[in-house]
Design a protein that fits this description.
alpha+beta
Length: about 150
């Protein structure tokens, strides 16, 4: 018994591997872009909540005019503590308790005046940094009335 093997040759050897590699790169770029954008939006919400926590801290502990510098440092400390517990970062980009990153504004210590806490946080992308996308400044402002 003789068996003849019929060999079919095609001119498209490896074409599917090339197509797969092109599609895979696009797919991975989209997937990592979605993950990165989700992390950005989550961290933006954390920064917004950190400003609310700081403003609430300043309104709650407000007593007669006392050492404003001490109170400001306590507000900044609460903002940094909340952000440090909840931010998702993969590097050393943490919120600093400096006057340039956390700005506290209040006209005076009277009732019905607003305490304003604003935060500027530089968010560094994890995956999209490889494509040359610069860090974005996340800004959040919270106002609370002193009652």
């Amino acid at each position: 018994m003789f068996f003849k093997l019929k060999i079919i040759r095609s001119d498209q050897d490896g074409a599917s591997a090339v197509e797969f590699s092109i599609v895979l790169m696009l797919l991975l770029t989209v997937i990592f872009g979605i993950i990165e954008w989700g992390l950005f939006l989550f961290n933006k919400q954390v920064i917004t909540n950190a400003t609310r926590e700081g403003a609430r801290r300043g309104v709650i502990m407000r007593k007669a005019p006392r050492n404003v510098i001490t109170e400001d440092s306590e507000i900044r400390g609460r903002v940094v503590q909340y952000a440090g517990q909840n931010l998702i970062t993969f590097g050393t980009d943490i919120l600093q308790a400096t006057s340039s990153d956390i700005i506290i504004t209040r006209p005076d210590f009277k009732f019905e005046t607003n305490l304003q806490v604003s935060v500027n946080y530089e968010y560094k992308f994890l995956f999209l940094d490889a494509f040359g996308i610069d860090p974005i400044i996340i800004s959040a402002i919270s106002n609370m009335k002193m009652e």
